[in-house]
């Protein structure tokens, strides 16, 4: 078995024993972000498929998620960082009712490593908490993440609330249940006339969008 196969399988199995040694070996071949994007996330995709098909139970999904988090924590100090002046401030949250945070935390790492200040306020955040943090930190952008289908509806509600309150801060939306069409049609019209709403397919997309927003 190659190190690539082993790492992917570790995510599927939630197997952390010896994880660091495999990650160290993989770092001899790939940069840390590539290990995450092309090896570890492949394993997570399999977990999602097995779970969706009823072939994997929730406690095992949790083990996979914990393994993913341990791997990211191990790799993070080895990632390239752009130091220097702060390019902009973003408040990042997983929306109300949603606990999924692996994607959000990857966005945090990638933005932080690229010169942005990220205020990551965590999971299950109601819009009031997100806005309070944005106000307090004078955020240049707000990022909302959510993986459940119901989270997409909450994002749209959040934008309506923001429009009602007269906000015009740009908003980035991301997470597996979203589609570009939903963001560009429903969400953009919910925030109509107020500010920009953009769909981030992945964390790098989030970085590109943040660069545009903070210009
Ligand atoms: Co859950 N879960 N889960 N889960 N889980 C999904 C999302 C699901 C699709 C699985 C499935 O059925 N196949 C399904 C949702 C179905 C739906 O809504 N229609 C589901 C379900 C049903 C549930 C529960 C309801 C199960 C239950 O309790 N019966 C429950 C929900 C609890 C709740 O939220 N209230 C639940 C719980 C869990 C765990 C706790 C066990 C665990 C999460 C642990 C954690 O995050 N700390 C978990 C996991 C791991 C998953 C899957 C398998 C993997 C998610 C993940 O971490 N992916 C997931 C299957 C799937 O997504 N297909 C699933 C890796 C991550 C890096 O990707 O977050 O998409 P993602 O992030 C990407 C992009 O989307 C983007 O960048 C990232 C990197 O490319 N991105 C952004 C994300 N946010 C962004 C924000 C940005 C920019 C980009 O800017 C703001």
UniProtKB/TrEMBL annotation:
Give residue ranges for domain B12-binding N-terminal: 1-87
Q: Which domain of life is it from?
A: Bacteria
Q: Can you give the residue ranges of the B12-binding domain?
A: 87-215
Where, in this chain's numbering, is methylcob(III)alamin bound?
Answer: 97-101, 145, 203
Annotated family: Belongs to the vitamin-B12 dependent methionine synthase family.
Q: What is known of its domains?
A: Modular enzyme with four functionally distinct domains. The isolated Hcy-binding domain catalyzes methyl transfer from free methylcobalamin to homocysteine. The Hcy-binding domain in association with the pterin-binding domain catalyzes the methylation of cob(I)alamin by methyltetrahydrofolate and the methylation of homocysteine. The B12-binding domain binds the cofactor. The AdoMet activation domain binds S-adenosyl-L-methionine. Under aerobic conditions cob(I)alamin can be converted to inactive cob(II)alamin.
The task this protein performs is described as:
Catalyzes the transfer of a methyl group from methyl-cobalamin to homocysteine, yielding enzyme-bound cob(I)alamin and methionine. Subsequently, remethylates the cofactor using methyltetrahydrofolate.
Q: What is this protein called?
A: Methionine synthase
Taxonomy of origin reads: Bacteria, Pseudomonadati, Pseudomonadota, Alphaproteobacteria, Rhodospirillales
